[in-house]
Amino acid sequence: MRLTNLLFTTLLLFVSVFARSQKSNEFTVLQWNVWQEGTMVPGGYDAIVNEIVRLKPDFVTFSEVRNYNKTNFTARVCASLKEKGLSYYSFYSYDTGLLSKHPITDSLTVFPEKDDHGSIYRLTSSVNGHKVAVYTSHLDYLDCAYYNARGYDGSTWKEIPLPASVEEILKVNVASQRDDAIRLFITQAEKDLAAGYKVIIGGDFNEPSHRDWIEKNKDMYDHNGFVVPWTVTTLLEEAGFVDSYRKIYPNPLTHPGFTYPSDNPAKTPEKITWAPKADERDRIDFIFYKGEGLDARKAVIFGPKGSIVRAQRVQETSKDKFLLPLDVWPTDHKGLLVTFICK
């Protein structure tokens, strides 16, 4: 009996130590387009702070940060979090922003914002001895080719004839600088990987994934019969980066993972959609990753279940897992929260 009890106690101890070890090797990344710092929604800024207090992510990759009110948004968020008992570090940037629970060891401007053609910034840190490089991005929103596929001009949001071919759709990508920005990211990321870092990039790419506009759904969501090899995600995948959400949920029919445009109870639908006659449900907010021993363990869509379709509120019926907001939703996007493990 004593031997049995000893074995049982030893097993419990092993399980406890293993669980703690697994937990210490986990960290979370929140990608969040905050729609001009939440200024478009009454109480939006406070909602951003309150949600970070609730979720306590290790890293936050912000998109659509503009340093309104002549302030450094990420520094202001850190100050607000400190008032609530949480310590975060920030990297100043424009158009995008970065928060880290862990001290920042280095920061870098990879693709500076200029004339609304997007931006990419990077910080490095250490999570329980693991070197991590985290990038944030908000890519060109002036030339959005996925609107063209729906009969909308991607620059002015005016109605246009439907394109005749995929090639015609992708001509808009030539005008944007999304591919240029991602190529610069890949070049820098390879240096980080060679130096032993695990690399993560979060962002609003303003472009869907090539894994989402496929043969099986070409007649859904106003895809209008198009199967489109969207270029940003293709470039990342060819460079060995993994789409965290599609890694966990590979089927875009059961788990479309739409992040834009999000329903927002605080605003009327005509205020939160650029193309009121288009069904523009898409996944344009992403977290990609690469690095030895790094893997995505869990992913949830952060925000309301509803979307805006042709200026109407629609409740999604997909199998996507949602983390619903506390109260006020500060943006027209849904976010993405991913748990990583360093094996």
UniProtKB/TrEMBL annotation:
Keywords: Endonuclease, Exonuclease, Hydrolase, Nuclease, Signal. GO terms for molecular function: endonuclease activity; exonuclease activity. Residues 1-21 form the signal peptide. Residues 30-333 form the Endonuclease/exonuclease/phosphatase domain. SUPFAM superfamilies: DNase I-like (SSF56219). The lineage of its organism: Bacteria, Pseudomonadati, Bacteroidota, Bacteroidia, Bacteroidales. Pfam families: Exo_endo_phos. Coiled coil: none annotated. This is Endonuclease/exonuclease/phosphatase family protein. InterPro entries: Endo/exonu/phosph_ase_sf, Endo/exonuclease/phosphatase. It comes from Bacteroides faecis.
